[in-house]
Amino acid sequence: MKARNLLTLSMIVSCLWHTACGSETTVGGGCTVTEHADDDGATLTCTDGSSYELPGECGPPPSTFLMQHEWNEAEMFRRDCSAEAGLNLHICTQNGDPDCGDQYEQWMNSCDHIWRLWINMIPQRECGTVIFEVEDPQVQSSPATVSYDDPDGDGIHNWHEYSMGLNPCEANSFGTCVASDAEQDYDSDGTPNGQDEYPLCDIHHENDPADWQSDCV
After folding, report:
1. pLDDT tens, 75-91?
2. Which of 17, 69, 197, 215 has the smallest CB count inside 10 Å?
């Protein structure tokens, strides 16, 4: 899905929330209006003369759609780039080049560097935060660490937000119709994300006796 289509998706979500789309919209309670307002608490005049208080928009913010789209694109790039690096290593080895190992490391550094900058792009634009702290974005071999910032104040740092597919710029990644990011329980261990030291998985969960999950970091 291209970025220009994300606004359309957001509009579709808005339309579905109001239960109909078109010149006449049923907003709830049997109220039909020719136009509807998106402001929280807006009072509408129905076609039958009655009034209706809109509950307000509660769908996901557009930045969540855009962020997840770009993150998926970045992950696919990294996968393809890594596969190409592996193929190049194989060809290099077949040709007897003694520097294949160094070349492969450079290829992978390039793949990872572009991937990190791509992951950072939308959150950096939306709220000035990043998922990866890259020492020098202009240098492909530049050291990078995951970010432990929490710009939306929900108790979940950026790296965990990214890992769970959440929006680090919004405390309610999927809107106010559902539980906030902090209230959700990603690993189903009974501890809400915002209070969980290891929100990605329960390191001693009865359903995971071997502790095989490797994302508890």
Report:
1. 999 999 999 999 999 99
2. 197
